[in-house]
């Protein structure tokens, strides 16, 4: 991408602003992107250094500390009246001078506000006070950030070679002095599994889901032609984590069916994940309250649910090398019914021309934690072909990093 002049960026911001006022999909992301371009064009190097190496590391460190002392919760509890530094200091246990310095940086970075002598919550800080986001902050700071911090020395040691795909001696293992693969490390070092599952449940919250209107046509591609005989399965979410995707899918489709005077989804919806994840899902909800079925299943073993209408793998294959990805798909293939079952990969498809921050930062997360990479369309095609599948179509939505790749038996 060629760099733009400041006036060109301002013009883009103006037109993205109009699109935003008209609620056009992708306009918010375009505004944020152009605002970043504006900062990059305006900042002189000293300002760039100050923001990148002081302000932003200090911000994330303060936010991590805020989790421990419940800073955002106390600000939320204070409501519109706000809270003065002395009271906030008493509640958090942070001495008042230190508290003021930390909170001032949060004000300068627009995370909270200060007026009439009191600190105030913002919609953002109130969201960060929720348990899922508190866990996500801990995961990002404690588990992910050390892997990035170690990049320079790690790659100096490897003489700037990419680690072999799926390597068990990547930046993550070096940072955490472990030889375990990422997912095994999460289980072995509580509470990281819980924090990671929370992170997965919110890191794309607020973005359209693959099943939302205008993205993947669920009625046309899944519900029409669904075989409801023998209590058929409509959707299996393979490696679905805590079930946030299936819960939202069921909520949305049960609701739209009710408008048509029907009470239920046309078929069963099943969440699958590793045993400890399913155990925590079951423990968190009384089993009969779950809006979907839950089943422990290792996706490196044959898929036990045969002939479902669709098998969803959301952000699964990107965690694995090509070889392992092909193994996961090969374990799914025997369960597929020809001309009926669909495989849905909800994954990033990397564009060489216009990589977005959402795509490049996820690609670097993959490099840091799994020594793997996000894939281009040609790479997806290659993996699917090797497992005996073919791409039917790729669906995208403006401003959403992940596409929906629909595949079927070749
Ligand atoms: C990146 S998360 C994706 C979770 C969810 N699909 C989403 O997009 O939010 C990867 C998921 O794969 C699960 N997983 C890892 N290894 C697995 C295995 N061998 N069998 C089944 N699930 C596994 C993890 O527990 C985790 O929930």
From TrEMBL:
PROSITE patterns: SAM_OMT_II
PANTHER family per the UniProt record, alphabetical: O-METHYLTRANSFERASE, PUTATIVE (AFU_ORTHOLOGUE AFUA_4G14580)-RELATED
Keyword Transferase recorded: yes
Sequence ranges assigned to domain O-methyltransferase C-terminal in this UniProt record: 220-389
InterPro entries, sorted: COMT-like, COMT_C, SAM-dependent_MTases_sf, WH-like_DNA-bd_sf, WH_DNA-bd_sf
Active site: 318
Gene3D superfamilies tied to this protein: Vaccinia Virus protein VP39, Winged helix-like DNA-binding domain superfamily/Winged helix DNA-binding domain
Gene Ontology process terms (BP): methylation
Keywords: Methyltransferase, S-adenosyl-L-methionine, Transferase
GO MF term (any one): O-methyltransferase activity
Record protein name field: O-methyltransferase C-terminal domain-containing protein
């Amino acid at each position: 991408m060629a760099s733009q002049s400041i006036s060109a960026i301002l013009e883009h911001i103006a037109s993205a602003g109009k699109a935003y006022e008209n609620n056009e999909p992708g306009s918010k992301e375009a505004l944020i992107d152009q605002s970043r371009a504006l900062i990059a064009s305006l900042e002189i190097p000293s300002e760039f250094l100050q923001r990148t190496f002081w302000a932003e590391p200090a911000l994330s460190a303060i936010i991590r500390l805020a989790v421990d002392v419940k800073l955002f919760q106390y600000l939320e509890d204070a409501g519109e009246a706000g809270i003065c530094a002395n009271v906030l200091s008493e509640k958090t246990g942070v001495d008042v001078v230190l508290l003021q310095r930390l909170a001032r940086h949060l004000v300068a970075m627009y995370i909270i506000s200060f007026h009439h002598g009191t600190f105030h919550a913002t919609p953002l800080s109130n969201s960060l006070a929720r348990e899922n986001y508190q866990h996500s902050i801990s995961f990002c700071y404690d588990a992910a950030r050390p892997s990035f911090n170690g990049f320079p020395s790690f790659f100096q040691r490897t003489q700037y070679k990419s680690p072999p795909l799926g390597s068990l001696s990547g930046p993550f293992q070096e940072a955490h002095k472990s030889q375990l693969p990422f997912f095994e490390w999460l289980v072995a070092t509580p509470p990281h599994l819980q924090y990671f599952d929370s992170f997965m449940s919110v890191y794309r919250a607020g973005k359209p889901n693959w099943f939302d209107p205008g993205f993947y046509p669920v009625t046309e591609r899944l519900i029409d032609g669904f075989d409801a005989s023998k209590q058929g399965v409509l959707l299996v979410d393979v490696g679905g984590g805590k079930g946030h995707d299936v819960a939202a899918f069921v909520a949305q489709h049960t609701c739209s069916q009710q408008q048509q005077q029907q009470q239920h989804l046309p078929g069963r919806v099943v969440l699958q994940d590793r045993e400890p994840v399913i155990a925590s899902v079951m423990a968190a909800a009384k089993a009969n309250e779950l809006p979907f079925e839950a089943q422990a299943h290792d996706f490196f073993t044959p898929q036990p649910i045969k002939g479902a209408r669709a098998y969803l793998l959301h952000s699964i294959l990107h965690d694995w090398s090509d070889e392992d990805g092909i193994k996961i798909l090969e374990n799914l293939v025997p369960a597929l019914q020809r001309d009926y079952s669909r495989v849905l990969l909800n994954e990033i498809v990397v564009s060489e021309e216009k990589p977005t921050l959402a795509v490049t930062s996820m690609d670097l997360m993959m490099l840091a934690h799994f020594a793997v990479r996000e894939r281009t369309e040609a790479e997806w095609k290659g993996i699917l072909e090797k497992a005996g599948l073919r791409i039917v179509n790729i669906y995208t939505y403006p401003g959403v990093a992940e596409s929906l790749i629909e595949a079927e038996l070749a």
